[in-house]
Here is the input.
Amino acid sequence: MAARSIGTATISFGLVSIPTKLYTTNESSGDIHFNMLHDADGGRLKQQYICTKCNEVVDRDHTVKGYEHTKGEYVVLSAEELKALDAVATQAIALEEFVPASAVDPLWVEKSYYLGPDKGGERAYKLLSDAMIDTGLVGLASYSARGKQYIVLLRPYEKGLIMHQLRYAQEVKPWADIPVPDLPEIKPAELNLAKQIVQQIAAATFDPTKYKDDVQERMRALIQQKVEGQEITMAPEAPQGKVIDLMEALKASLGMSTKAGAEADRKPALAAAPAAAAAAAEVAEPKKRAAKKKSG
Here is the structure.
C-alpha cells in the first residue's frame, strides 16, 4: 500500500525549484498504553481543568492562553494574536549550504521525513540527489511549517531524498556539562582483549530486523495472562555481579563471544586468536612468576 503524503514542500538551490511531498518515516509500533480507571466501578476517568483561584471546573470553551511575563502575572493573547506570532509557513526548503555528510553528528537529528518528488519535479529531484552522491555532501536549509521554523538536513537515501529535522544549538546540552572524572590509563593488554571482543561480534552492515522489543512482547504476554484470569507475578531479579578484575572479565567475555559465534555458525569479522592468546599470556605471565617466586 502506497504511503500517504503528510504535506508538500519546495526545495530550492540556486535558481532550481523542486516540488516535493513529505512522508513520515515512522510506522505505528503498537505501543502499550494504560488508561486511568475508577477503582470502585472500573469507569474510565477523564481530565478536567480546575481554576486555581475559584477551584471550579472550567470547560474548554472558557479557556484562553496566556504568557507569564513576571511571576504570577500573565498577558492573555487572542486566537488572532497567537496566529500572528506563528512563523509564516512558506513550505520552502531553501538550501543555504552543503557540508560533508560526516560533519553532522546524529546527536543533532530530532526527526526524519521521506521526501518524494511531486508532479513535474522528477528530473530536478534526481539531479539534486545525484549531485550530493557524487560530491559526498549534504544540504542544510531553513524550513518553516506548522507555525515554526526548523533547520533541516537533506541527503540522498535509497532512490531519493530524506529530510532530517535538526535541533538548534541552544537545544543541545554541551558535553562540558557532563561530570566526567580524570580517566585512568588503559594497559595495552587490556586494549588488545577489548578489541578482540569488538571484532568477534562485528558486522559489515546494520540489520535492524535482528533487534526485537523483548520488553513489549513480555508485557503483552503478561497482560494476556491477566485477561485470561491469571495473576501477574514479579519475576526474580537477576543477581548483579560486580567486576572485580577487568582482565579476567575481558578474557571471560572473549570466550563467551567465541562460543556464541560458533553456535551461530558465524565467522568473526576480524578474528585474531593469536593476538588474543598473546595478550592473555602477557597478563598471566607476571602472575606465574610471582607464584613461582613465592613457592621458591
About this structure: The mean pLDDT is 83. The chain has six helices and eleven strands. The longest strand covers residues 148-157. The helical segments are 79-85, 122-135, 188-200, 214-227, 246-263, 273-295.
